[in-house]
Structure formats: structure tokens, C-alpha cells
Amino acid sequence: MIKASLHKELNTANGKGALSVDLTLQKGTITSLYGESGVGKTMILRMLAGLEVPDRGTVMFDEDVWFSNSRGGGLSVDKRRVGFVFQDYGLFPNMSIEENVRFAAAKGDESLIHYYIDAFGLTTLKDRKPGELSGGQKQRTAIARALVYKPKVLLLDEPFTAQDKKRSDIVGRQILKYTEENDCVTVLVTHDIAATLKLATYIYSIINGEVMSEGSVGDVFLNDTGSKRNGIHGVVADKLNHDGRRVLLVLVNEQMLEIGVDQAIDLFEIGDEVYLKLDENSSSFRVEKL
Fold first, then answer.
1. Which fold has domain 2-222?
2. Beta bridge partners of 4
């Protein structure tokens, strides 16, 4: 388990800000950091990995001190056994797919290397270098490389952005399988709502550098606290009739969600800003105007 108290001054596109969060990250489960761009989610990952130093705070992995400003520093990156998938993939441009993956693997662990190359649909491309790959192929290579490292902590920064739905499902299942079988602490930053709902056991909703709500999917997305800030924000893109059902197409973080609203469809216009919450009884989304 990781227990972290992280405080960091930030320079964002909107000016100076502050990040101040307390997190408890359990082994064998995926925790999602959810929030709009610029709230500090990537910075949290970088501080957990040791790539950024908190202004103050602590990071504990079980009984091991990974960081403590009161003790004058922390454990170096290479001693934390962290697998990190960056948004820009971080592949070695002079190495093939197979060489990139092998670089992170334990010596002689050929079966695991070929398992992930095959599982991620990269077998026929394994001799190609990153410059010859699509964004999705690079991304899957980066994830395969992180998994063959056999990390005890897996940090994923937008790992589904370049994948279609089929590939996202495959990648998600492999990440979940690794997490559960290896008792790994996995932290996921994604705007992919479907992936969050499918994979995450615990969610931290972060707004303006602070945790505004936390808990299970139900705690964060089901329970209406009276604040629309806890909802999933979207924009109405279209109004359709599907087999007698009246639905809204809602654009959420570059994904289109189909929400059944029936007679209530007349309350909405294309371009309306809305927020979504899971309905406790039907497990489907309900939609309300902002």
C-alpha cells in the first residue's frame, strides 16, 4: 500500500496554483485519478515515481519511506520499482519494438516479452522502430515494456488515448490481470470514462488541486452531493431516435456517449453543457443541464 501526502506549487496555463492531496493506494487494485486537464494528475504520478520532488509531504510504500521532506529527501527513482507509461510513450527511437520491450525485462524472461508483444497485437511489427509505428502501436509498446519490468507500482498516464475501443479493452484487461495477479499498486490517469468505470476500484476526483470526492464508482459518480462539480461534464452533440428510443449523443473528453432520455429530450439543445451521474437503480447515466 502507498500512503502519500503531496504538496506542490504548480505553474499552469491558468497561472499559479497549488496541489495538495492525501492518497491511500491499495495493492491489487486500480485507483483512478479523475479530473479536468491541468489539475495536477500527471504531477501526482511523477511525484509518486520520484521524477518530481514535492515541496513538502511524505510517500510511504508499506513501511518503506520513499519520500519525506522532514527526513531530507527520499528513495531514488531506480529503487522504487515503478513502471511508468508516459503520455509521449518514452520509447527509444533507435530500438525496435522487441528491443524496447526487452530492455525493461529481467534477463532471460523471453516468454513474458513475447507474451505481451503477442497480447498487444505487435508480433508482426516487432522488428519495426518507433518512427515506423502509429500512435496506438507506440502506446501498446510502452505499456508492454512497463509490464515486463514487473513493477510493484504501475503508473499510467492516459494509456488509452491512441487506442480504438477493441484495443482499449484488450489493454485494459491485461493491466487489470497484471494488477490483480501481482498485487500491484496501479494508478490510472485517463479521460476515458468507460475505462474508469470498468477498471477502477477506487476513484479520487480532483478539482483545483484538491480531492473533492473519493471512493468507489458509486461513491463518486452515483451519490448526488448537491454539487454538480462532482458530475462528469459533457456537451450535447446531437439528438437522435434509435428504434423508438430518444437519445442524446453527449461528447465527454473526446468520446461520444449515447444517453437515453425519452420524453426529456425536448429539454436539451445541441451545444448544451450537461453533467452525467450514474443512476443507482438502473446503473445507467442520467443527464442534467449545467
1. Rossmann fold (3.40.50)
2. 23, 59
